[in-house]
Design a protein that fits this description.
Blueprint lengths: L2 H20 L27 H19 L3
Length: about 70
């Protein structure tokens, strides 16, 4: 996807989350991961590398911590 297409997808996803939250379901969230960096390299067949997966896992853990109140 182009940068513009990615931005449109994020905007659409955020709109959906806001609408679902406004309808009463406050347990719906959104998280967009940053793409891999050249320093992280690529895995097999252009999939994320191990370094990218680790960074994404850390991002997810932080978001879950905020949502679930983990300390």
């Amino acid at each position: 996807l182009s940068r513009r297409q990615r931005q449109m997808c994020i905007r659409d996803r955020e709109t959906i989350v806001r609408e679902v939250n406004a309808a009463g379901d406050k347990k719906v969230f959104s998280l967009a991961f940053a793409g891999g960096t050249s320093a992280e390299g690529l895995g097999t067949d252009d999939h994320p590398s191990m370094a990218t997966h680790i960074r994404m896992a850390e991002t997810l853990e932080k978001k879950l911590s905020e949502i679930l109140g983990w300390t």
